[in-house]
Amino acid sequence: MRIRRGVPLAAFTVPAGLLLLSGCAGGGAASEPSPSASDMTSGEARPWEPDDALQRTERALRAAAEDDGREAEFVDADTAYVGSGLDKSFPATGKGDPYRFEITCDTDGAQELTLTLSRGEEEQAYGVECGDREADQYNIPPGRGFKARVDPVKAGTGVIAWRLTTIDPGDVAGCEDDIDACEG
Q: What is the β-pairing status of strands 86-90 and 146-150?
């Protein structure tokens, strides 16, 4: 199984604010996603379309779950606009199986969003690259609720899609608790 996750932002020596500004600033050529070959028509980039973005995020969520051993048990899923962000609490008390939080984004103008996972005083921020073909995955142990937050990008256009499932304990690869980033 392959767990895709962004690198914790604390691992960078660049201040997080500068990283966010460089990934989310609008107007400059560096902040615009480069069109792929499939997006080209007669040498012009196709305009970004919300319906297409929703389809791409759904494919990315499905691709992320393909490597799971047994069928993951659905808990919750939703989408949000990039301009609204995400601020959701999850009880995560479950029956003892670990949780997997999967998230992806598809935007016009923002190349990366910051996901912050928190539980009580513990907090970990991750960069989520928008437009990836596979959603980022984060392992959350059962027993204590947690919160997922993506700050709004006021000038951004796009969608955030996420899903929460329970998985077999044997399907947890790497860090068992991405909120404490296995530092404790």
A: antiparallel
For the whole model, what pTM was predicted? 0.71
The first and second tokens of residue 33, run together, are 């996603």
pLDDT in tens, 36-70: 433 434 445 557 777 788 888 888 888 777 665 56
158: left (phi over 0), alpha (psi -120 to 50) or beta: left
- Copy the structure tokens of residue 83: 């301009």
N-term to C-term CA, the chain: 24
Report DSSP state, residue 71: P
- What ranges make up the beta strands (E) of 27-110? 40-41, 44-45, 73-81, 86-90, 99-108
Spatial distance between the Cα atoms of 112 and 115, rounded to a whole number of angstroms: 10
